[in-house]
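SUBJECT: protein chain
CONTENTS: sequence, structure tokens:
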Amino acid sequence: MKNLKSFKSLIPKYDFFLFDQWGVLHNGHSKFEDAENCLRILKKNKKKIILISNSSRPTEDSISNLTKLGFDEYLYDYCITSGQIAINNIEKDIYAKYGKTCYPLKMSNDKIKSFKLKCTKEIKNADFVMIADLDVNLSVLDFAKTLDEMLELNLPLLCANPDYLVYDNEELSMCGGTVAQLYEDMGGKVFRYGKPYKPIYSNIIKTMKIRDFSKVLVVGDSLWHDIAGGNLLNFDGLWVKSGVHTPQLDKGKEISDLLDNYKPKYAISELKI
């Protein structure tokens, strides 16, 4: 892994840049000015910029949020979310195989509306279960009883946000991906669509007509998702340290083991020219 002080040296090496959003371009509340400047420089150099997010929201909601944060749409060529890929695939992967009645696992009403779900309040009447973004202060213990019921009923789980954790206001909160991983470890069937799983990258490759994978750089703060997803396709990775792994940076062996496992090609303290 090569540690960089500036993003600038990577610009001539790649044609396609896949940027994570939260933790790289913004913190959920305000944009990172240096990161925005990186996008501007890339556009001046006629590079293709793809914004990729594990948000469970549709892409149009993500674009709207980016606009509110101050990112002009001309700064990127394509934006895609895990939620959008789930919406695109729910018919063939879930409805056609299991049925259309959903038990929403601690999902807000707006998420239910986004997916146009037919929901039940009784898990025994469900054909599948869905989990999306979670409220803060939840732990896996809050899901233990429901996961046992799901397993007994042999219900598949659709996970619209496969992130394990989110780093917000210097605190870590659990995401749906942690619950999905636990359910899978218990023996349950899980469908995931965002990073680091193939469906979201297949969409990007097809949409952006990417042919030479050596010309693609993944930029993200999560070794578990951004860098792991890049590894799946043999894309080079730039790990941005100022994100979800921040609490682990002073835990030598813990972060060392992660780096040995995921092996990003480059690392930078924060995204800047």
